[in-house]
Amino acid sequence: MTASRREAMAAYGFLLPNFLGFLAFTSIPVVISLVMAFSHWNIFRPPSWVGLENFQSLLWFRREGGELVVNDPFFWQYVYNTVFLMAGIPVGMAGSLIVALMMNQRLRGIVVLRTVYFLPTVCSGVALLILWKYLYNADIGLINKGVRLIGAAIYASKPLAIVFTVFCAIIFGLAATAAAACVLALVRYMSSKLRREWSEGVLRALVVLTGAATFILIGVYGRSIYAYVAGFFATPPDWLGTVQWSKPSLILMGLWGGLGGYNMILYLAALQGVPTSYYEAAEIDGAGGWAKFWAVTWPMISPTTFFILIMSIIGGFQSGFMTANIMTGGGPAGSTTTVEYYLYQTAFEKFNMGYASAIAWFIFAVILLLTRLTWRIGGKVVVYE
Amino acid sequence: MSRLTTWRRIVLYAVLGAGAVTMLVPFLWMISTSVKQPGEVFSTGGGIKWLPEHLFWQDRVVDGVKVRAWWGNYPDAWNEISFFRLYLSSIFVAVVGTFGQVLTSSMAAYAFARLRFPGRDKLFFAYLATMMVPGSVTMIPVFVIMKHFHWINTYQALIVPGLFSAYGTFMLRQFFMGLPSDLEDAAKIDGSGYIGIWARVILPLSKPALATLTTFTFMGFWGSYMWPLVVTITEQFRTLPIGLKYFVGQHATNYTQLMAGSMIALIPVLVLFIFNQRYFVEGIKLSGIKG
Questions:
Q1: Rounded distance between C-alpha atoms, residue A267 and residue A273, angstroms
Q2: Does A17 contact B134 at a Cβ distance shorter than 8 Å?
């Protein structure tokens, strides 16, 4: 036997255990799943082939009295919930990057801080979700106790209350303007792809206009804003128990948990990989801190941003099972049921395996599509050395 | 990195410190609740009390009311569900599963990183592609396979599907690629076979990556909730997260015991983290994402 043949035989030997597992628990299941998506099966009776029926009742619509009605309205509500909950992804990424930038400074005790920030990631799981359910409790939860205390302190004196309301309004106005600016920048970027360039000045003027409009609106509705904020602090909401607060509450919890987690450490590693000579060169060119960030740091860490974004999209579309199962039961009124939780219910509570497999393939298709889209856009923006 | 001025240093400490407090407060509240009397938790009036009213070492009677010792919720929670049994199951599943996954991943990673064989790159791409397959797609068929083997409600069902990981293979392969080849060549000249090189050269050189993969895999098995919920039926094979969930069902409003039970569930993973955290950050750093 020649040396190269021996090497190949050894390699196959090393690969064998992993490869068998890969066949048994990934490749073959994918094929089974695809077949199941075209069948009816409740695990008690043998499966029967039904062609496209599962996909038809999941994704399609029918005509009812001249109107179009979707076949499974619950499913589309859950898709909306899943996408809504993914809105936390960009905010969380920005937060992780900011924390990583701060942790990348030469500070004493940084290891302790890093450990503390990583604590929620280590503890993530059932125990942590139970804790958060308790924190969000409307009557005895720590959050509402805190909100009521702060409210009592502020609304004891009228001038303080007015100052506080103005402060809140300004913060809200700035946040709204910033969000509008992001959207406008995105629109500008997309229209430049369609060969319709706007100048920088037009963008700035538009941002200033939307900002001014926001603040005028805030001024006009000043009284009702005051009443609303005062009401919020007097009787804080039942976070997980009301439809309009349940999803933002879950997003907030995710932001808390993810701020100093894996993403932050990935960013930290990327930041430490940027050669200092680049910064020195930028300094010689007279760049300040802000300019250095956009000219050096941001392009150098763009592969990491890209990686985190893709992983977050893949993870985000499959998430929400544990929070729904442990904290909310998917409610109120289905407002926290995600596609993944719907899949679990369909498969393991209603034993409708075929329909559940169709849901799984929908998730797969969306993930593939989103990843491809991110890849195509990212491929033009990301800078590889 | 330039040197920081005193002002910037103060601002950084203030912002990072505020963040750290935000991270810690929920956990402190958890500890605080776990040592309170059940009645104290429900006092809705007024402020936030961090310390329980009574901190007795032993049960006592105050004004005709029996007051428990401050640690009393812990043995109550421990006895309420069979924590001991859950711990044993969880530890068994996590240790065997982690060992198996690191073993198979390091073997496959060695073949992909250091050996030449026909079809290597194509096969590796196939592995990478499977990382895209969502768990949602494979979960139901794997459940069906388990059912077919009559493995439902056994330790095998909890462990075996988790023994193989494309991600672990990928991560270790990236690390192995970066190792210098001199030691490997020296071992070859000394007459070592491939198994010898893998066990005595590659693995000892890869401690940070192996420690990181071990910790993450262990955390994955330890916290796994959905899969054990699907494949276990009786208490005997349930793992800690599921036991905790049933505990919630029985004590929906008994927050003192709930928090004590959650603390009991968190202690092992906290200890593991504190011991391993120095490898941790290092390991992720080295196994960075660049190809």
A1: 10
A2: no
